[in-house]
Amino acid sequence: MSKYVYGIDVGGTSIKIGLFNFESMDMINDFEVETPKLNHKDSIFETIYQGIISNNEINNILMDDILGVGIDVPCPVKKGYVHTCANLNLNDTDLISSMKKYLPDHVELVAANDATIAAFGENASLKNPYDNAVLITLGTGVGGGVILDGAIVEGATGLGGEVGHIRVYDEEEKVCGCGSKGCLEQICGTAGILNYTKNLLPNDTSILDKDQLTVKAIFDAAKKGDPVALKTVHRVAKYIGIAASILSIINEPDVFIIGGGVSKSGKFLIDLIQMYYKENARFTTGDIPFKLAMTGNQAGIIGSAMLVKSVIVST
Amino acid sequence: MSKYVYGIDVGGTSIKIGLFNFESMDMINDFEVETPKLNHKDSIFETIYQGIISNNEINNILMDDILGVGIDVPCPVKKGYVHTCANLNLNDTDLISSMKKYLPDHVELVAANDATIAAFGENASLKNPYDNAVLITLGTGVGGGVILDGAIVEGATGLGGEVGHIRVYDEEEKVCGCGSKGCLEQICGTAGILNYTKNLLPNDTSILDKDQLTVKAIFDAAKKGDPVALKTVHRVAKYIGIAASILSIINEPDVFIIGGGVSKSGKFLIDLIQMYYKENARFTTGDIPFKLAMTGNQAGIIGSAMLVKSVIVST
Questions:
Q1: Which Pfam families match (chains A, B) (predicted)?
Q2: Which of B136, B169, B183, B252 would best serve as a mutation to test chain A binding (most A beta carbons within 10 A)?
Q3: Chain A contacts of B76, Cβ < 8 Å?
Q4: Would you state the pLDDT for residue A202?
Q5: Model confidence over A184-223: pLDDT tens digits?
Q6: Domains present along chain B, CATH in parentheses
Q7: What is the 8-class DSSP label of residue B80?
Q8: Helix (H, G, I), strand (E, B) or coil at B76
Q9: Which of A53, A147, B51, B264 is most buried, judged by most C-beta within 10 A?
Q10: Does the beta carbon of B163 lie under 8 angstroms from any beta carbon of chain A?
Q11: Burial (CB count within 10 angstroms: exposed 0-12, middle 13-18, buried 19+), residue B101
């Protein structure tokens, strides 16, 4: 009889739940439920449990056939423990023991930060996964995760892998959301991209409309050769390349994976990043491949499911 | 009967050999032999073997009582394998199998990069070792190593932990020895420190003598309040602080350990580094302690011995 694992992606707005075949890691089905805003902490875990119960029924699966549940949350996690969570009522919460109350003993549980889980899942989804991988996701913010020797890097308290806050720009004068200055996110996050482009627009010829500026419009215009858009995109690629060269010299991954909304620009962006990376890479690290993230907004459920499978397999 | 391990530190000029009690990790004795310059690769391993044999005799110890031998070398090492070594005839060499030929099967062998081994040894030498530690060594160059979850970080090919080549200075115009620009080593290595100070001297009042300038003289003058020397030392501390803030956001160690010649300036330097680190640290990583390296030029033999002991204990 088939066995299964669940991958759960807990976000500020919704909880995504995916059921996977344990052997093939094919996804059976997935669905979303609203993230409960109730004040009692257990509401999130109850909601996950109810989701699992009803999804088991829909798929005619017994709880005995569920081998593991992987959960990600949008905050630092250390060995399953959340100290503080800005967007959810999870401060001082042991995710594992909180979930254990609802599930039978045989169900293996893992929990980690969402971007770190995504890094694990993106690498594990490659045809030939690597031992060492770094994911950089480009969206409103810049996030990511670090995988070393096949394991996720959490660091002392779960803040490891916050690649968006690598200091890359010495001359930055504005303060980043993190309280420091010169972070990768200040240049390559949505606000940084839009502000830089807006400042260029009055002085240069461009097909871009200042009043309807989006990151997508900038990348599309750059592909068409628009000089302002190209300047912005080269700047984004340059600083991602520099951040990657710093990551290389500290952790030397076998692969960089680029994800998030901006990564939809595809090979155009990857090629530019790789060019700047090679310019800044040290020693022999310049040949590390860059790949596009493939799991999209299912990164959380796929990564969580893959992480709990890897724990089950190794124990 | 007591059991023992050897720690071996292979340098370009000499090979340091230390004998340690396995239980207490007290050093029984240590000695140096010249690094052989012969062209055949085995000469280094033969020299180590002869050193072990004669030291066993001196200490009246049987080979049966040697549980392990740890070896470090001054080049990237991946799982005991050296691809290229700039200073020694060790290109394309499996250090483990090369040494295995000389030693009985029961002897556990480990080999790794010297700075990474030093990081492992410095952390393991602390009263309460941490899971995650980073060593930054300040000397002619700037080196170091990264320990995560108790294990050394080698990366894809053994280049992990090259903290001296973290890019910290965006405006640097000179090319670093590594081929890139703006590396920590360009500011905080001996040449960087001396050049920066020399450029300041013609214009400022200072007790420093331009023709007899040394890094030690600069740090001593800074302690006395010399304005030129203070400017240099603050610059060094600032960029180490920035590099540490970058390391924190990627790997979030529990501790930073500062070693190398410059670290002899002691608390004076550590306090400055910590001040700049706090200015640049992100989120809650600002409270990570900074400690001075304690093992000095025995870092290699102590770290190698501790690493092989850790492997024996865990298997």
A1: ROK
A2: B252
A3: 283
A4: 81
A5: 999 999 999 999 999 999 877 899 998 899 999 999 999 9
A6: 4-123+297-314 (3.30.420.40), 130-293 (3.30.420.40)
A7: T
A8: coil
A9: A147
A10: yes
A11: exposed
Which residue in B148, B157, B180 is closest to A280 by CB distance?
A: B180
B contacts of A181 (beta carbons < 8 Å): 280
3-state SS class at A298: helix
Provide the token pair at B111: 């080999």
Name the token pair of B178: 């590594």
Give the whole-angstrom CA distance, residue B308 versus residue A248.
27
H/E stretch holding B116:
helix B114-125
Phi, then psi, of B23 in degrees rounded to 5: -70, -55
Report the 10 Å Cβ neighbour count for A209.
11
Residue whose token pair is 């020693």: A283
Model confidence at A179, pLDDT cuts 50, 70, 90, reads confident
ipTM higher than threshold 0.90: yes
Closest in A130, A163, A282 to B250, CB measured: A163
In this structure, are residues A256 and A291 in contact, taking their beta carbons and an 8 Å threshold? yes
Instruction: Quick: pLDDT tens for B63-99.
Output: 999 999 999 999 999 999 999 998 898 999 999 999 9
Give the C-alpha separation, B58 to A27, whole Å: 66
Tokens of B79: 């799982």
